[in-house]
Design the sequence.
């Protein structure tokens, strides 16, 4: 015991249970998936080679990436505007806005997706209204295509985009903006040269968060895409539950994991990730 | 660049600022001369910062008018006023280098790059920060950040420079040093400086003129010497330095502690008051003696340390003497 104490700080004993839990519940399954992707059905990189055979898989990956990028762009633009409005309006309006935001945050993704189903269908509220006021002759196809998936995903993602931006904007000293005006900068010069760069860590955090969460979207594409818009998560589920090709599923999961890690790595080349996740900028 | 025909004289005419029912600034008139170092001095809540923010254009004027060289600027937005400003806490741009911070005003005016570079070099030399041009503000000390803020505000040669408690965040020793530098820079650039502070020592040592404010109004305006030697009321006398107040024949007089002399014993025929020493506090450069007078007042007396005062100890009876000119009659009511 003495010898042990000399080499290992006793503090480790206190955090050992947590450490074990993290290893057992996170690291273990991830390693298992990586293992499966190179062993099932037979050892080797056969599963990964499938990406180059035929274009079905590549198309699914490409659809996923495209939808995620579009979702991220729109969610972050809307999120930025909403966060800006929240920070710069009166306290009362801010409380209302935050409440609305959090309410939509707390409503289950299933409920929200089915709500869009009601609104966007051929006989849904939006199409019926548009036809009644004579704006369109034929109902617009909002569903069973990418447009529907995008509407549902952007709507779901906006609160996630707003929260990191809100934190970042709230920490800005108003006097810095005053200083910019005082030095003769117009409103738009102040925004582009001071405000936007100063909220950049929040912007990157919200972009990463939305993009990474979007990659794993399952319910919304399945319901609003109506089987026409196949994204990786849905395809993985099909491989697991229907065709029982666990190796292919594991390979796709591994690709997504590496994709996210690669993105974080690229980001870390341009900025300190600790500032993005709330650490001090130094 | 600012218009060279512009000089920096400001006319403040009956200016008021209301926040709801509260009058933060109440009917102020003030003429600020071109090139002077004017300090707005007052306790917190006296309206000095509010007045400065109205001059800068960040706050609307509720009533009255502010004019630059006779032309009203009340409706000119802050970004068009061409006034430099050093903010409390400096408000530097944290994502830009010192060079970009200082050159910001010229760069938003779309000046050519080499002109900006030369001018920034000139300003950095003025505040002695040449070797820090490529650092970010976060890598500088408080005193250095303060100088960057000053260089940034002076870079476009504004006719007027506004300073909002710029030394508030510095420690006392550094503050005295920076006061010297500020005064020196004022001499060299010749711009009108309007300086807000609640620190009376800063005001006395740097200003050409001081405006003492209380509750949104001006109490007294004058040179540091005028204000110190000839305060018109109890507020000014006690806010700027220390003062004893003596009530005689229904009048009130202000009497500075260093203008009183003490004589031990009670035989001096010139004595204005008599009393006994209650306490003596040693301050290094002087000692402060508190005397309980026979009239029941408490009088503070500052005695130079070089004077042999071994006969002055606690409990000793003393005579208090001063010249007629030392006691200043105050307005009452």
Sequence:
């Amino acid at each position: 015991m003495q010898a042990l104490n000399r080499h290992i700080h006793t503090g480790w004993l206190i955090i050992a249970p947590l450490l074990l839990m993290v290893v057992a519940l996170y690291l273990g399954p991830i390693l298992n998936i990586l293992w499966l992707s190179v062993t099932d059905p037979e050892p080797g990189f056969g599963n990964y080679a499938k990406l180059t055979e035929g274009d079905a898989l590549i198309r699914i990956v490409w659809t996923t990436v495209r939808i995620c990028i579009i979702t991220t762009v729109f969610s972050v633009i809307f999120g930025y505007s909403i966060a800006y409005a929240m920070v710069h309006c009166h306290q009362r309006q801010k409380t209302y806005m935050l409440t609305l935001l959090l309410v939509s945050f707390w409503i289950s993704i299933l409920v929200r997706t089915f709500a869009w189903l009601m609104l966007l269908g051929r006989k849904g509220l939006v199409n019926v209204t548009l036809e009644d006021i004579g704006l369109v002759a034929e109902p617009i196809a909002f569903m069973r295509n990418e447009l529907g998936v995008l509407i549902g995903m952007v709507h779901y993602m906006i609160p996630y985009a707003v929260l990191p931006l809100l934190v970042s904007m709230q920490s800005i000293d108003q006097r810095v903006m005053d200083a910019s005006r005082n030095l003769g900068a117009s409103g738009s010069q102040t925004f582009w040269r001071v405000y936007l760069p100063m909220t950049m860590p929040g912007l990157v955090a919200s972009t990463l968060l939305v993009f990474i969460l979007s990659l794993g979207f399952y319910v919304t594409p399945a319901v609003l895409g109506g089987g026409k818009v196949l994204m990786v998560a849905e395809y993985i589920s099909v491989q697991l539950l229907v065709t029982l090709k666990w190796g292919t599923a594991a390979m796709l999961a591994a690709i997504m994991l590496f994709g996210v890690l690669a993105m974080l790595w690229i980001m870390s080349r341009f900025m300190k990730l600790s500032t993005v996740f709330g650490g001090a900028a130094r | 660049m600012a218009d060279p025909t512009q000089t920096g004289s400001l006319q403040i005419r009956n200016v008021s600022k209301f926040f709801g029912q509260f009058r933060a600034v109440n009917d102020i008139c003030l003429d600020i001369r071109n090139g002077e170092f004017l300090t707005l001095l007052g306790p917190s809540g006296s309206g000095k910062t509010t007045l400065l923010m109205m001059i800068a254009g960040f706050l609307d004027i509720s009533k009255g008018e502010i004019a630059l060289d006779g032309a009203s600027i009340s409706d000119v937005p802050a970004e068009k006023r061409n006034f430099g400003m050093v903010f409390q806490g400096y408000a530097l741009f944290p994502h830009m280098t010192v060079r970009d911070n200082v050159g910001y005003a010229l760069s938003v005016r779309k000046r050519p790059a080499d002109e900006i570079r030369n001018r920034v070099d000139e300003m950095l030399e003025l505040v002695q920060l040449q070797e820090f041009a490529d650092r970010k503000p976060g890598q500088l000390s408080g005193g250095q950040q303060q100088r960057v803020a000053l260089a940034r505000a002076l870079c476009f040669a504004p006719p007027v420079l506004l300073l909002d408690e710029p030394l508030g965040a510095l420690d006392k020793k550094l503050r005295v040093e920076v006061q010297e530098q500020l005064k020196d820079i004022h001499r060299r650039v010749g711009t009108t400086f309007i300086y807000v502070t609640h620190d009376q020592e800063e005001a006395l040592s740097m200003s050409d003129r001081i405006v003492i404010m209380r509750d949104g109004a001006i109490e007294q305006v004058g040179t540091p010497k005028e204000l110190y030697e000839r305060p018109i009321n109890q507020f000014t006398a006690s806010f700027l330095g220390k003062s004893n107040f003596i009530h005689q024949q229904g009048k009130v007089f202000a009497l500075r502690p260093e203008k009183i002399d003490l004589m031990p014993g009670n035989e001096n025929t010139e004595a204005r008051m008599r009393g006994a020493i209650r306490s003596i506090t040693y301050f290094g450069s002087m000692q402060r003696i508190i005397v309980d007078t026979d009239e029941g007042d408490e009088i503070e007396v500052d005695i130079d340390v070089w004077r042999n005062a071994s006969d002055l100890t606690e409990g000793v009876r003393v005579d208090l003497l001063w010249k007629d000119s030392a006691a200043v009659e105050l307005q009452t009511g």
About this structure: The first helix of chain A runs from residue 2 to 7. Residues 32 and 250 of chain A are 9 Å apart (CA to CA).
